[in-house]
Amino acid sequence: MTLESKTAKGPADYESAVASAPQAVASFDDQRHGIGHKIQHTLHQTPSLVPLIVLVISLVVFGLLLGSKLFSPFALTLILQQVQIVGIVAAAQSIVILTAGIDLSVGAIMVLSSVVMGQFTFRYGLPVEVSIVCGLICGTLCGYINGFLVAVVKLPPFIVTLGMWQIVLATNFLYSANETIRSQEISEVAPLLQFFGNKVNIGGAIFTYGVIFMVVLVMVLAYALRQTAWGRHVYAVGDDPEAAQLSGVQVKKVLISVYMLTGLICAFAGWAMIGRIGSVSPTTGQLANIESITAVVIGGISLFGGRGSVLGTLFGALIVGVFTLSLRLLGADAQWTYLLIGILIIGAVAIDQWIRKVSV
């Protein structure tokens, strides 16, 4: 057979081979059809479902034990008032952890912002509105420093925020001289500082403006994270920053914006804390960083980033509030609260690891 005949017969042989080849597309059997996988997939699609289920079970169990003591309007609104500060700070912590980072300085930034608001009003005689704006700027600036060091200098978030926590904490005590501005002085001279402590009656239940702000903040963040380009970029950076960079996401800007927003929200938490306790104290709220991380983890946000819902964080904060108040009403030792919450934290991380397998 000559070369010319081979060339002439080639296309015909190829077409006949294609015509006789199987037309079905290659497929692989999916063995994951059990009820366990279906539950796993559902929880992966709706991260806030797990903390919501835990919250409902907690209310049912403690409701059976306490009856009307727990389900009274007073008790339910008291839970919301007790978790409002942690809920606000945890909302800020959520967006940082979604980027696979962590912010250990949130509590210190919150306290320093409140101290700035109080000191600028009473030490320098500035109008209270100006002092509040200065406090909000202070929190945002601290967040910017964190974001710059993480995004541009490429330092680990844990180390950066741990150092910032110590720096801001020391600055707080040095600047305030460890002095507390009393509630009576604030109510007489600058009642706007106590704004978030004011109460409103809604349907027979009494809520503070701080509680309303917490709920509105969570709803706004939930919408922004799910429905805006910025929110999708936050999830993308947390899931895989290198892939996000290659797809056109400006990773550095996203990280800096996240930490700045976190600082601003913490400053609002400082303002709300003044309304909650009535005074400006440099020693209050120092454990907000641990409490916020607790609410975030129990709320189902993955510590590895890229998965979770800020709505779940609110449920996590409420779970802690329900456990704390219910055990107190039952007369149990306070250590039981820490024990049960510790179990919840470990359980939440274990469930997160199990859910993440659905994407492998």
Question: Could you please describe the fold and organization of this structure?
Answer:
This protein has 360 residues and is mainly alpha-helical. The protein has 16 helices and two strands. The chain has helices spanning 3-20, 35-45, 49-66, 68-71, 73-98, 106-122, 128-151, 157-176, 183-189, 209-227, 229-239, 241-246, 251-277, 288-298, 310-329, 334-356, and strands at residues 199-202, 205-208. It has a two-stranded antiparallel sheet. It is globular and about 95 Å long. The N and C termini lie far apart (53 Å). The mean pLDDT is 87.
Query: What is the helix/strand order?
Result: HHHHHHHHHEEHHHHHHH
Distance between the termini: 53 Å
Number of helices: 16
Number of strands: 2
What is the alpha-carbon Rg in Å?
26 Å
Decide which structural class fits the backbone: mainly alpha
Q: Give the rounded overall mean pLDDT.
A: 87
Stretches with pLDDT under 50, minimum 5 residues: none
